[in-house]
Amino acid sequence: MKRSACLGRISTTPLIVLAAVALAVGLWAGSRWMPHSVSQSDLQAAVLYPAPAPVPPFTLQRPDGSNLTEADLQGHWSVLFFGFTHCPDICPTSLAEFKQVWAKLDAQGKGKRARLVFISVDPERDSGAPLGRYVDFFNPEFIAATGADEQLQGLTRSLGVLYARSADGSGGYSVDHSASALIIDPQGRRAGMFRPPFKAAAIAADLLTLMGSS
Q1: Of the candidates 156, 186, 213, which has an alpha carbon nearest to the alpha carbon of residue 73?
Q2: Is the pLDDT of residue 11 over 50?
Q3: What's the pLDDT at 15?
Q4: CA 163 → CA 7, 46, 117, 192, distances in Å?
Q5: Can you give the pLDDT at residue 37?
Q6: Pairing label, strands 173-177, 67-69
Q7: Which residues contact 206 (CB under 8 A, 6 or more apart)?
Q8: Distance CA 76, CA 3 (A)
Q9: Which residues lie closer than 8 Å to 159 by C-beta, 6 or more apart?
């Protein structure tokens, strides 16, 4: 029987070192800047990058066959979470928490001002309808997309997100991946991140704070 593992971060030591270096450089590069006058002390869970970086051009495929591009990230706050549908723990737990986040935003009439985008790093098993059904289970308003590794790696590398597959010893494979969720501002720029474990109340409060500043 095949199984998949979702460990929440890349286990390969060199990749972890590269991710740590990338984050440190990002934090150092613009330590005098905070987006939209929101300071780190105003937030409960989000970690803001001092200087926002534009999300580069990319093209992924949604379950219905239409494209998801960087243009779709503009005009609202977006939360990008990378994972895969066969993930046994981190992904479903995280999406369940984000489901609660959007329930809280909807209660404040702000759900439409933010988007949750789930990007699968397992295109072999997650293209088309299965990916759509998986995300719809948590919230039909959540967006899902995936693409070939060449497409995925162009995006993940630019965002500092890591993923890797490895044989699991039973004829299947596991996918290890970064577990943080990226925050994209209405200008389509990477503005910060939410780190696990995710807490719906804190994330909803932070998104409302960010919305109020934009």
Answers
A1: 186
A2: no
A3: 46
A4: 10, 22, 17, 19
A5: 79
A6: unpaired
A7: 43, 44, 45, 46, 194
A8: 37
A9: 55, 80, 182, 190
Closest CA to 45 of 183, 177, 176, 143: 183
Angle, helices 200-213 vs 90-107, to 10°: value is 50
Residue 44, number of CB atoms within 10 A of its CB: 12
Least confident stretch, 11-15, 31-35, 87-91, 188-192: 31-35
193: three-class secondary structure by DSSP: strand
Span 143-165, mean pLDDT? 96
Side chain identity, residue 175: V
Tokens encoding 205: 């409060």
Amino acid symbol at 138: F
Average pLDDT, the chain: 87
Residue 108 belongs to what H/E stretch? none
Q: Is 49 left (phi over 0), alpha (psi -120 to 50) or beta?
A: beta
Radius of gyration of the chain (CA): 17
Could you tell me the CA-to-CA distances from 186 to 28, 105, 179, 197 in Å, in that order?
Answer: 23, 17, 22, 25
Residue 64 one-letter amino acid: D
For residue 77, pLDDT beyond 80: yes
- For 30-50, give the DSSP string: TTT--GGG--GGG-SSEEEEE
Mean pLDDT over 59-78 rounds to 97
What is the structure's pLDDT at 147?
Answer: 97
